[in-house]
Amino acid sequence: MTSTAGFLVAYRGSVILAPMTERGDVPGSFRVRVVAEAIDRFAEGGYEATTVDEIAAAAGISRRTFFRQFRSKEDVIFADHEQLLDEVKQYLATDHRDPWAAICDAARLVFAHFQESRDLSLRRYRVVQLVPALRDRELVTVHSYERIFIDYLREARPAESVLKIVGYAAAVTACHNYLLRAMIRGDADATVESLDAALADLRKTYGFASGSGTDQEVVVAKFPAGTPADVIAEAVRRQIETNGR
């Protein structure tokens, strides 16, 4: 995914000239390839025993190129999380009629990303579970999503109770993470649809089940380029229903 263009209900395509990597692929696919090779090496030889040189050789790049893209072996494991954190920030930085629904949509975006790359996510999950330092990094990363949600809601709804905001953000994050791990492990019931249902129930519990607008205008939100179509469709559908109430 890239953040240089965006969606406005329907995708507005752009032709972007990007620098090429050693094998001739653009940076996005290059990073995915290196991450996949690194995780495969970690799974086969162990995280601690695998060297950067081995990863670089498997990916067909130089050690120098590796360190231009990643600061360490640990960064390779969590590379797409860093990208997703940026995309979540970008999404929440756009106009949203209902901020409580907006963070649910942001969580859905993250879930959809990992569902699309489930095989790679499963291999990474298995590696992370074997290394205490990686498990600690994962906890920090999870908290980063929650922190973004809290900061956004406090700015969007300054009159709301801080404790209510913190509780809501934590609950959204917890529902997402529970279903995400279940999906990665192969639970057929852990789907985007089940996440939607869980978050809809959560909004009802907190009293944020619908927007407060009474007019008939449709408010359009921008999405980072690469946002899955079903995430966009669900957000637009929810907004139309809210405006129609």
From TrEMBL:
Coiled-coil annotated spans: none
Name of the featured protein: Regulatory protein
Alphabetically ordered keywords of this record: DNA-binding
Lineage, top ranks: Bacteria, Bacillati, Actinomycetota, Actinomycetes, Mycobacteriales
Cited Pfam families: TetR_N (PF00440)
Residue span, HTH tetR-type domain: 28-88
DNA-binding region, residue range(s): 51-70
DNA-binding in keyword set: yes
Domain of life where this protein originates: Bacteria
Keyword Iron-sulfur included in the entry's annotation: no
Cited PROSITE patterns: HTH_TETR_2 (PS50977)
Gene3D superfamilies, per the entry: Tetracycline Repressor, domain 2 (1.10.357.10)
InterPro entries, sorted: Homeodomain-like_sf, HTH-type_TetR-like_transc_reg, HTH_TetR
Organism: Hoyosella subflava (strain DSM 45089 / JCM 17490 / NBRC 109087 / DQS3-9A1) (Amycolicicoccus subflavus)
SUPFAM superfamilies: Homeodomain-like (SSF46689)
Molecular-function GO term, any one: DNA-binding transcription factor activity
